[in-house]
Structure formats: C-alpha cells, structure tokens
Amino acid sequence: MAVAVDAMGGDRGPSVLVEGAVAAAREFGIPVVLVGAEDVLAAEVRRHGAGGLPVRIHNATQVVGMDESPADSLRRKKDSSIRVAFDLVRAGEADAVVSAGNSGATLATAMVALGRISGVRPAIATLIPTLKTPSVLIDVGANVDCKPPHLFQFGVMGAVFSREILKKPDPRVGLLSIGEEDTKGNQQVKKAYDLLAASSLNFVGNVEGRDVFGGDVDVVVCDGFVGNICLKLSEGLAESILQMLRTEIGSSVLGRLGYLMARSAFRRFRRRVDYAEYGGAPLLGINGVGLICHGRSGAKAIKNAVRAAHNLVEVRLAQKLAASLDAGGEGLRAAP
C-alpha cells in the first residue's frame, strides 16, 4: 500500500517534503513514492539516510507553481509532479496521493485522473480541534459556489469520514448558519437544511460560528467559501494566541516562573491547535484517496499526512463514500 508524495509542491521545497515522507516510511513502515525531479530527490533521499527504507523515486519533469491556474496546469503540464502522482494511482502503482502544492491544481488533477463519484461534487474536509474531540469541517475550499444538494452530499461524506476515521458511530451533523433556528440563513442554507433534516443523517440543525469549537457537533457543513475563511481564521487565531502567550510570559519574572510550572500544559495545547498534527485535508468524492496539505507544511505535517492517507486507503473510505452516496444517504446507518 504505497503513498505517492508530490515532492516538488509546497512553499518549503523538496528537502522538507522528502524529510517528512522518509520519516513516515521509517516510523510507520509505509511505502512511499517520491514524485519529482529524480536527481534532486535522489540527493535528498541520501541526505536523509533512507537506504533500506520502502522509499522509491518516480521522475516528473514539471512543477505546478502555487500561483498557476488549475486549467493551465492541466493543459500545459502533463508531466507535473501532481499529475504524475495521480497517474500512478490510476495505474495501480500507488494507492493515494499527498500534495502540499497548488490545491486547485491538485483538486482538478484528481478529478481528471481518478474521476469522481457519479453525481457528486468533491469537497475538502479537515479535522478541527474542539473542547472535546476533533470534528470535521467540510467544505474548506473546493467549492466556493454550491447548491443545496451539494451541501447535503457534504453532510453525507463528512458523516462517513467521521465514522470511519474518528470512530464516531452516529456522527452529529450540523449546518453552519447565522442562527440556530431553521428559518435563519440564506436560501441556499434553508433548502440544504430541509434536505439534511429529511435524511437518515443524525442532523442536529443549524450551528453558529461560536459553537463550532465547542465539540457538540461532529460534522460542520458549509460551502467552500465560508469554510476556507473559517479555517484560515481559526489558524490565524491559534497562532496569535500562542504569540500573545509568549509575549505575556516573557514580560515578567513571575510569568517565566509560571511557564516553567505549566509548560507541559502549554505543549499539549500547542499540539491540539497545530495543523501539522492532522497532516492534511482529504479530498472526498473522488474515486480514490488524495490529501491536500497546507502550503507551509513542514516535515511533521507531511509525515502525518502520509499516515492519514494510508489510513484512508486501509478503511476503504472512497468505496464507503460511494456506497452511502449511491443510497442517497439512506445507507449510512446500515453501512458496515
């Protein structure tokens, strides 16, 4: 069960991506295929001491820039590291793809190379920390314009993902809106509410932004425009809180002494809000497994993304998504 890693994407270059992929092979025993410029990757593999590990290189001569349009990359760069990685999955030489590169190009390439579940709008799901256990936020950027049936599909896919990965047997699904009442929200949200309420999902109604991190809802459904803003707002808030804490702690002797006494708690808090702990965001609704990582992902995030991709393949998530969506959501409770 091999995971193909787009080793040329992201903001931090092949060195960090190879380091993370090698760490996944070393710590978890997961076979990894590094896709990109063969000479560059070979040098990095040697530098990270990957001899004897299940790591191999597959050459790709082109790289998709972070600012390139998905359509242009598909048309002009058929030998890009993103395209070659998904082609390996299609050819059966790999089982999943991890990329920290251009997210739009990754989404478009996945749909072209692997196809999508019939009639389904693929969406990006991400795990978010809460006061209780992690929850799923879907969609966080794949679809900025959605129709109510798409939001319903996101609810189904998020519930299956929560059940299979977070081991929540009957996930509580909420619809992100401006109020808890079913009369709140725009027309898109109101119509999606009716679809979700009429399904077999454990739909708990509308969820306000202030309740997302409370942990009382397992799946939060929204369109990609709203979801991407929520995701980046929460990332920025977490980073700002950590910086504020550092400033306050360092401003006095008592603050530094207090930190020494509570540093283990601070470390646990940092881990809970660190996106690197979750690895990447799975692209749900395609006929296969693809994970989109943050462009700033370091080695730790890539390592955890490879492990997450391996887990998604292992539980046959794509097949279970297709089965539930084919049943219009009604197969959720009966699915194994």
Task: Briefly say what this structure is.
This protein is α/β, with parallel strands linked by helices and 336 residues long. The chain contains 11 helices and 11 strands. Strands 3-2-1-4-11-10-5-6-9-7-8 form an 11-stranded mixed beta sheet, with helices on both faces.
Primary descriptors:
Isopropylmalate Dehydrogenase; 15% strand; 11-stranded mixed β-sheet; transferase; lipid biosynthesis; disordered C terminus; 336 residues; alpha/beta; 11 strands; globular
Write the layout of secondary structure elements.
Blueprint: E1 3-6, H1 13-28, E2 32-36, H2 38-47, E3 55-59, H3 70-76, H4 81-90, E4 96-99, H5 103-114, E5 123-128, E6 135-138, H6 148-165, E7 172-176, H7 187-197, E8 202-207, E9 219-221, H8 224-250, H9 253-273, E10 281-284, E11 290-292, H10 299-314, H11 317-326
Parallel strand pairs: 1-2, 1-4, 2-3, 4-11, 6-9, 7-8, 7-9
Antiparallel strand pairs: 5-6, 5-10, 10-11
Helix pairs in contact: 1-2, 1-10, 3-5, 4-5, 6-7, 6-11, 8-9
